[in-house]
Each structure stands twice: as C-alpha cells, then as structure tokens.
Amino acid sequence: MVTNIGRGAAHNKTSSRFGLPEREVDGDWLDEQRLIDGEPPRLKTSVTLLKPKTIISYNKSPDIGFDRSINPFAGCEHGCIYCYARPSHAYHDLSPGLDFESRLFAKPSAAALLRTELAKPNYRAAPIAIGTNTDGYQPAEREWGITRSILEILLETRHPLYLTTKSDRLLRDIDLLAQMADQQLVAVAISITTLDADLARRLEPRAPHPQRRLAAVRALRDAGIPVQVNLSPIIPDITDHEIETLIAAASSAGAHAISSILLRLPHEVAPLFRAWLAEHFPDRAAKVMHIVQETQGGRDYQSDFFTRMKGRGIWADLIRQRVRKACQRHNLITPLAPLRCDLFTPPSPSGQLSLF
Hints:
Elements: H1 27-37, E1 46-49, E2 57-58, E3 68-70, E4 73-74, H2 98-102, E5 103-106, H3 110-118, E6 128-130, H4 140-144, H5 146-157, E7 161-165, H6 174-182, E8 186-191, H7 197-203, H8 210-222, E9 227-234, H9 243-253, E10 257-262, H10 269-280, H11 285-295, H12 313-329
Parallel strand pairs: 1-5, 3-6, 6-7, 7-8, 8-9, 9-10
Antiparallel strand pairs: 2-3, 4-5
Helix pairs in contact: 3-5, 5-6, 9-12
C-alpha cells in the first residue's frame, strides 16, 4: 500500500504496456515506520531536469484545432485522477499513478530551444498550444518560470498561442498575455470540472479552488484577453449534474465561450479511475462505469478520431444537448475568434535583433 494523502491516484503501479518491472514499497519497512512514527510521511514532489533536443511537438490528429504544442513539464502535480496525459509517464519507466503527480520533469531550456526552432528558415507560424497535455502553470512553474520564458519568446516574435490551464497562476503573466491579446495572438482556456470544493479536492487535489479559477476568468476578461471555460471532463453521475450551473457561473465571470469534453480513459487511466471510484464513490462506481462504457461503444475507452472526446450514444447526445442549450441561454454559442499568424517575425537564433 502506498500512502497518497493529498494526491489523486490510489496506487502507483507501473505500466505493463512496455514490459517494465513491477515496483512495490517494502511492506516490512512500512510496518516498522508506522510503529515508530505512525503513518508514513506524505509523498514529496521531486523535479528532474530534462534536456530535450527540440521543444515543439507536432501532431496530425484531425479532431483538434492545432498541429503543434509545447510541454514545459512532464508529469503534473495537480494530480487530476482523470488526466489523459498520465500514460505518458510510462515512457520514463515510471508509473502513470502517483509517479505522474510526484516525480516531475522540467525543461528549463525550453525558451532557448524555441528560439532556435522559430528561427529556422522553413518554419511557418501556426498556433502553438500549451497546457493541452500537462499544465504549464502547475505549482512547479512558480519556481522554474519556464512557461513565462516561452511566452516572452512568443510575444517577441508575435507568434500565436492557445493556452489551457486549470490554475490562476497564469495571472502572474497577465502583462505578457495582454500584450499578445492586443495583437490577436492569444486565446486562453480555463478548465473547471466542478464548483463543489470537496469534490474538486478529490478529483484534482492540487489544482486551485474552482472559485479562484472563475476569478482568473474575470481578470482575463477585464484585461481584454479572450477566455473560454472548458467543462473538462464531464463525468457521468459525478459532475454532469453541474453542467448548467457551471455554464451560468462561467457566463457571470465573463467567459467569451464554452467548450466541453466527455470523460476519456485511455490506457492506464481507466484502472486508476476505477480505483478512485471504489475509494470515493463505491455506492455508484458500477453505474458510473456503465454509463462511461455506453458512451464508448461498450468499452472503457475508444480512441476513434472525432468521437473520442465527445462519446456516442444516448448519454453522450443528452450531455451535448444540455451543454448547447445552456450556452444558448447565456449567449455563449460563438467560438473565440481565430488567432493571427501573419504577424510572425522570426527571431535571431542568438537573441539579438536584426540590423536589417
């Protein structure tokens, strides 16, 4: 048994997809520790430096609105139990469970690498996404400042950016974001899963309080920065009853638009979520998974493009109808305006301004 006080995952099993050896905490040591000090200490977060050769990741997925992204960190301390990025930690020979939220990797060379890549003669500007995998404004950003250094390069080169987060820490960088917004270079999405503080602590234990995220929406709106609220994910029989309330709160906070994604459980996320349900909602765990499987063609998850984030069937259709009607009620049916790509000016690899 692994202590997970203040964490999202209920266990720390390593992935079996890549033939990694199973790791377990020594039980005799735990018994001895409990006798001496009581329960084991809380799991601490560690950050290891990564030295990638490039920083922009490209994708060819036809059902998302960008083809490139940057991840300042690998792993995420927010600990959201539903996070579809958890399986990526298996590539580091680590568990998508507690390792994902406590054994992080930082990329302090991100800004320098970005400058080099944007300076290449064949580079063509298109919106870069930050925060669509792991959150660029998780607690580690306070110390490392990697996301801010990336924003500085994007502002300097007038490069468009889609920024997604569930943290109000991005308000630290509102000065840069406001300057980018003045040139139609940025759109921000704030993810809010629930307004129930107790449920939020269990679902996403180290993410900021939902009211702080709504306050961030107001601050961004007041600063002239396009902002939408992501209902992400909508979890059947856990958060779906809040759809209308969440959209009303987002409207009151000044959101320009709404998006929504149905719960998705790829690879190791499914057993982690099942364990979370058994711990926090044993009375409805079977019902929740039954509905989830109805939206996924009878499985825990189907990765088909265009339906993987929307689901299928009666339950998925009903949720979409509710989102659409609530958005219509609050005049939130118009998507954010597209970003400008024609202002991009390649940087000098050295960081010096060109004389010509």
